[in-house]
Amino acid sequence: MHLTYPKPINLDTDPNYDFWVNENTFPCRGHLKDLGIAPVEATWQAGTQQRFTLGGSSPHYGGSSQVSLSYDQGQTFRVLKSFPGSCPHRTNDQGQDFLFTIPANAPSGQAIFSWSWFNREQEMYHNCAVVEITGGTPTLEGSGWEEWPEMLVADLKAPGHGQQSESAGNQCLTPWREAEVLFPNPGPEVEEGDGEYPLVLPQGDC
């Protein structure tokens, strides 16, 4: 699965967008080097509800996701909304459109929109798109942005290692097979799923 709207950086030229990220391709599948030439894919007003859309043929019967913004060129991603057990939808028959809110105090200006996904196979997917925020706080300073929780980073493996790897780069692991991850810092908006799997916090140095 991958982000389709807003269109992520280099979607048309990266044949591996449907794969998880590892230590070498996090963040943003390694595409932040092209920030200077990547077009703005959406313009969103602070304080409004917006949507993102996923595509791909393998939703892995769900999982947990977060959407976040970065204002420092991908050094820090701060959470807008968490979807524990509710994103992606379990099958594509349900569609893959999701709603979230841009906080009213979001700083105006260009930002990186991030979608991160943890399935039940200890894999992290991370896609990023360039967006423009309007009508928000004029500057980062005083906006409260630094008080938003940081996006969960987990299941980052050294290149060449598969699932349930003990060599996970940051030593933070999400549940394996029998549960979906519960985000320790979910942010201001949370949408839980159908409860088919229990929600369990990640383990390790998270």
Question: pLDDT average, as an integer?
Answer: 93
The stretches of 5 or more residues where confidence is low (pLDDT under 50) are: none
Q: Shape, please? A: globular
Q: What percentage of residues falls in helices of 4 or more residues?
A: under 10%
Structure description:
The chain is an all-beta fold. Helices cover 0% and strands 30% of the residues. The chain has no helices and twelve strands. It has strands at residues 2-5, 42-45, 49-55, 64-70, 78-83, 97-101, 109-118, 124-134, 172-173, 180-181, 199-200, 203-204. The strands form four sheets. The chain has a five-stranded mixed beta sheet with strand order 2-8-7-4-5, with no helix packed on it. The two termini are 24 Å apart. The mean pLDDT is 93.
Characteristics:
single chain, 0% helix, 12 strands, 206 residues, mainly beta, three-stranded antiparallel beta sheet
Offer a quick outline of the entry.
This protein has strands at residues 2-5, 42-45, 49-55, 64-70, 78-83, 97-101, 109-118, 124-134, 172-173, 180-181, 199-200, 203-204. It has 206 residues and is an all-beta fold. A 5-stranded mixed beta sheet has the order 2-8-7-4-5, with no helix packed on it. Strands 1-3-6 form a 3-stranded antiparallel beta sheet, with no helix packed on it. A two-stranded antiparallel sheet has the order 9-12.
How are the SSEs placed, and which strands pair?
Layout: E1 2-5, E2 42-45, E3 49-55, E4 64-70, E5 78-83, E6 97-101, E7 109-118, E8 124-134, E9 172-173, E10 180-181, E11 199-200, E12 203-204
Parallel strand pairs: 2-8, 10-11
Antiparallel strand pairs: 1-3, 3-6, 4-5, 4-7, 7-8, 9-12
